[in-house]
Amino acid sequence: MLGPVPSPSPVPEPQASRPGASPAFESTIPIIDIRSTARSVTVAALEEGIRNGVLAGLSRPYNEKELPNLLLYNEGGLRLFEQITYQPDYYLTGLEIDILSRYAHQIADSVPDGAILLELGAGALRKTALILDALEAQGKAVTYFALDLDKPELLRTLAELKGRYTHVSLAGLWGTYDDGCTWLKQIKERPRIILWLGSSVGNMTRKEAGQFIRTFGDVLAPRDRFIIAIDSRYHKLDDIRAAYNDRAGVTRRFALNALGNINDLFNANVVDVSCFDYNPYYNEIQGRNEAYFRCLKETQFKIPSETPILVHEGEYIRFAFSHKYDRVERQMLWTAAGAHPVQEWASRDGDYALTMLSWAS
Ligand SMILES: C[S@@+](CC[C@H](N)C(=O)[O-])C[C@H]1O[C@@H](n2cnc3c(N)ncnc32)[C@H](O)[C@@H]1O
Predict the structure, then answer these.
(1) CA pair distance 257, 167, nearest whole angstrom
(2) Is pLDDT above 50 for 6?
(3) CA of 25 to the centre of ligand 1 (A)
(4) Which of 10, 39, 80, 313 has the most CB atoms around its CB within 10 Å?
């Protein structure tokens, strides 16, 4: 997922890809390394942060252990997550596609010509393409920046859009959400639209989510917008449970890949993945899926230079949350972020929503 510490890189002006251009002349979609723009979060610091999170989380008492959810998103994990989005059980993507298929043109209406579009945690770009297609159809000259953690995946997913647009320019931003927020401060001359799709906000606690969105509000100008997609609590419990434990077992593979990623991060045999299984639990009161590893056989995490950490058979280790929001909780989130909703697009049953936020008074 993460390479060596980069030297600071200039910000190249992205080029619109030209349809029909021969591969020899077609410009490569630029991937801008912004990891070094946020000095406190260089790649080394990020990797170090995840390693520290692993150690701290595993040092907690029996059945209170946890692991950082960033372990999920290495190259293999991102590919598995893309497969999850094609599973019929993972209703979130289907609902978002339904909304975007009907309203992408309205979203495009609200994007000024000359704007930049920054997508946080872009992942695979199947849904984003619906918005970019609508912008292209309106002839809007916008620059789209896909931000994510893994450079090979940014290259792969953006390459799938190469040659598709004449008005829309494409680029990748390689870094964390925080790096993206820092980078955004340099882009003051152009209207800025932030996209945060896939209900990724659900991975944060409700408190963290409000604070996080607020940090963007502190950077954005009154004309700028933040579009966020959030899943609701208004689904059948069985549907929510199936979404986080699909019949094809892709989510299970995605989860266990995160455990294997610990071995890569420490470059050592830290954990025997076969000693664990994936065990999700939907906490109805908290309105969130909680993803756990369940220990099948007593084992030890052997982190280099640390005392081995014993995990007992039957012990649970939490590694991810997926919070759902009802209407009141959504309103509380906007309030915590200091933002107000200017437009909302919802799925047919109102159980998934895209909200456009503004900080204009
Ligand atoms: C739930 S997936 C959603 C992917 C895609 N937006 C979608 O809707 O299908 C979360 C995405 O956010 C990215 N991500 C998670 N934490 C991140 C962070 N701190 N900084 C940058 N990207 C992050 C992951 O790599 C992944 O692509």
Answers:
(1) 38
(2) no
(3) 32
(4) 80
State residue 51's pLDDT score: 95
Q: How many Cα atoms sit within 13 Å of 120 on the Cβ side?
A: 26
- Domain 31-40+90-233+325-358: CATH architecture, name and number where available: 3-Layer(aba) Sandwich (3.40)
Q: Which residue has the tokens 């699909």?
A: 246
Q: What's the mean pLDDT in 61-85?
A: 97
Assess whether pLDDT exceeds 60 at residue 7.
no
> Structural domain boundaries of the chain?
31-40+90-233+325-358, 62-79+237-323
Which helix H or strand E contains 53, and what residues bound it?
A: helix 43-58
Residue nearest to atom 4 of ligand 1 (CA): 123
**CA atoms of 11 and 304, how far apart (whole Å):** 38
If pLDDT is split at 50, 70 and 90, which confidence band does 244 have? very high
Report residues whose beta carbon is within 6 angstroms of any ligand 1 atom.
70, 73, 78, 81, 85, 121-123, 127, 148-149, 176-177, 197-198, 200
The minimum-distance atom of ligand 1 relative to the CA of 70 is 16
Q: How far does residue 141's CA lie from ligand 1's centre (Å)?
A: 26
Burial 259-275 (b: 16+ CB within 10 A, else e): bbbbeebbeeebbebeb
